[in-house]
Amino acid sequence: MSLLNTMPEFTVTTKIDEMLNWTRKSSLWYMLFGLACCAIEMMQTGGPRSDLDRFGAVPRATPRQSDLMIIAGTLTLKMALRTKVLYDQMPDPKYVISMGSCSNCGGLFQLAYSVCDGVDKVIPVDVYVPGCPPRPESLTEGLLKLQEKMMQEKWLVRRGEDESVAAQA
Amino acid sequence: MDAAAIFERLQARFGDAVVTFDSGGEPAVRVNPSAIFQVCEYLKTDPALGFDCLSNQSGVDYPKRNDIEVVYHLYSYRVRHACVLKVSVARDNPTMPSVWRVWKTAIWQEREIFDLLGVVFEGHPDLRRILLPEDWVGHPLRKDFVEPTEYHGISTKRESML
Amino acid sequence: MSLGGYDVEVQRPGGLATEEMTLNMGPQHPSTHGVLRFIVKADGEVMREAIPDVGYLHRSIEKIAEKVGYHGFMPYTDRVDYVAAMPCNQGWGMVCEKLAGIEVPRRAEYCRVIAVELNRIASHLLSVGSMGMDIGAYTPFTHALREREYINDLLEELCGARLTFNYMRIGGVAWDLPPDWVPKAVAFLDRFEPLIDEYNALISYNKIYVERLANVAVISAAEAIDYNLVGPNLRGSGVKYDVRKDMPYSVYPEFEFDVPIGTGEVGTVGDCFDRYIVRIREMNQSCRILRQALAGVPEGPVLTKVPRKFKPPVGDAYIRLESARGDMGWYCVSDGSEYPYRVKIRTGSFTATSIIDKVSRGVMLADLIAIVASFDLVAPEIDR
Ligand code: SF4
To answer: Which pLDDT band, with edges at 50, 70 and 90, does A169 fall under?
Structure first.
């Protein structure tokens, strides 16, 4: 890896990047993190009709085994602190899909005193899926969008160095 | 038995100083806070009344009257009748006896009222916050509750995107 | 020593002392039905106590009611119990109608009953399916979800949403039954009713299933009433009480149906299995009600005229109805203005959670999952 890092970006490395990204995007293990109503739709998405497994996404019970966190539901202030802990426990590289208006921005519960208006106040979010609750189709679309995003990533450069390397090349 | 008949029984037992009839809204029996435990015990143990279930217990804040009203909705599975009790406690010092020894379900329902309205139930075995975090300030279902602007560094306001 | 029905030989070689251990379970846990946390004190595999810590989904719905007005609160009632949102809609409708003395047209009552019973089946399906998943069988869950999707389709056609329906209004329902909907619903019932037997064959009387559930967490009838358990949990303890039958509301008196209760067929009355099997039997009864209701929908309007600025007279009202999780209480205080003065929702899950501490003493750690699943807890209903 270190040898490749010193090299300018050849076709070979981009192909390797693509290959790595392709393998990773095809086995996105998501953590079962159902908070509220949206969790039921998330379950139905993983259920027989929409079948999220088609995209290589399977549910995991613990953060330590998962690459993706789907925040499905209302994030209360009491839960927000826990969410941060759970996110920190996930191994890098990790992604977050915020599902439903509640976790996007507070949604229906912006009027509430005990709700954190948006999960992006606590952890970084990659894809926002709108809806209250989003249909299984929209969550699937959100997952595909995340896969698109993952295909753009470059891994054969050390994190933080990519811009400078790209500039040299 | 309807509310008036239940009230008559209670009146005969406890006298006017303890119970009064309240016909505004749903007919209810207003009980003196200090006697609520005895009244509830009587309501449960008297064979003709037999209220074996506390169906609902809720608190209502009335800042204008300067009191908090605790409302008991009782139901008897044995006799199949219902009854409403109302108790008013002072708003600045809301203390009243707990009825958990009569109905176990009161343990949690009273905890909820304590959490959201700040009524202190004397003799309660475990009076802690239940829904809100332990370090929360204030009792949100009071009418004069002010929402906090932040909680552990998380601001609770969201700027409008428009 | 007997633990939850099992004879357990506790062996302590050489008189070694054991130590109590405190474990944390949740709030994120795949089998806690939403965000629910337990602080478990255990001695080896045996629980000394399991203290529930709730409130991770406290969304202040009761306070929001004071800000959004009577009509505006209807969508929030969906979120009180998202697995069975229709009964919550109906509860809010009923308490407002009682406050203001509004009559609901008969056709609207039929629409309500049909929607509520369909939703009840959907909710029980999820409960039965996740019961299987929680104690280690993943397949029943997918079977249950498969049927749930058909109900969701029907309800979506009825009101445009799969989960958060917002179907009812104060004084009726928002939409009439769509054309050709009734035959579709009947076709669903024809398909679904035989499937209940399939569930029974697949899981209910499966030996492992029965062993996991029978004689665990037995709750006597008196205890259930004392802790205010409601609905299937109460009926599992052998108390024959159903609000639809015993305090009739809406048009339920016109239908014929039975109230199934726990009989202790594989263990003791009031154990986890009884609570579970009551739900399966209730699905049958809901199908019965649905068939009668679908056959007899009267003509007429589905919504009475209710002013947009709805101002019920000063006073309070308390109603009870049978939601999927049992007797649900709605208490509303009006001060004569456009906004409710105070709304309190007494839900079945809240009171059921309070008994967990009591019944979990002395049972095995793994049984806590079965206990939680058998109560069919839904987190927002506990926390609101
Ligand atoms: S976005 Fe809507 S459906 Fe999802 S958790 Fe929030 S209120 Fe529930």
So the answer is: very low
Instruction: Answer for the pair B71, B57: CB distance below 8 angstroms, yes or no.
Output: yes
In Å, how far from its chain's centre is CA C185? 22
Distance (Å) from the C-alpha of residue B23 to the closest C-alpha of chain C?
10
**Could you check whether the bond before residue C27 is cis, i.e. omega within 30 degrees of 0?**
yes
Candidates C60, C333, C355; nearest CB to B60: C333
Query: Distance, CA A130 to ligand 1 centroid (Å)?
Result: 10
The pLDDT score that the predictor gives to residue C54 is 85
pLDDT of C133 > 50? The answer is: yes
**Per-domain residue ranges of chain C:** 61-353
Q: Which of C62, C225, C346 sits opposite B52 (nearest CB)?
A: C225
Pocket of ligand 1 (CB under 6 A): A 36-38, 73-74, 100-102, 107-108, 132-133; C 79, 164
In this predicted structure, what is the pLDDT of residue A13? 58
Angle at CA of residue A156, ends A154 and A160, nearest 5°: 70
Tell me, yes or no, if A78 comes closer than 8 A to chain C by beta carbon.
Answer: yes
Pairing of strands C326-334, C315-323: antiparallel
Chain B residues within 8 A of A118 when measuring between CB atoms:
158
Say if domain C61-353 classifies as CATH 1.20.120.1630.
Answer: no
CA of C102 vs chain B CAs: smallest distance (Å): 16
Show the tokens assigned to C226: 């004392």
Q: Tell if the CB–CB gap between A77 and B158 is shorter than 8 Å.
A: no
Q: Chain centroid to CA A112: how far?
A: 27
Which of C112, C110, C106, C107 is closest to C93 using CA atoms?
A: C112
Please report which confidence band the pLDDT of residue C15 belongs to, taking 50, 70 and 90 as the band edges: low
Whether the predicted pLDDT of A4 surpasses 60: no
Peptide bond into A133 cis (omega under 30): yes
Q: Do residue A43 and residue C146 have CB atoms under 8 angstroms apart?
A: no
ipTM of the predicted structure? 0.88
Angle between helices C181-199 and C272-295 (to 10 degrees): 160
Greatest Cα pair distance, chain B, in angstroms, is 65
Query: Quick one: how far is CA A91 from the chain centroid?
Result: 12
Nearest to residue B30, comparing CAs of B65, B64, B63? Answer: B65
Region C82-90: mean pLDDT is: 88
Angstrom distance (rounded) from CA A88 to CA A72: 18
Distance from the Cα of B70 to chain C's closest Cα (Å) equals 12
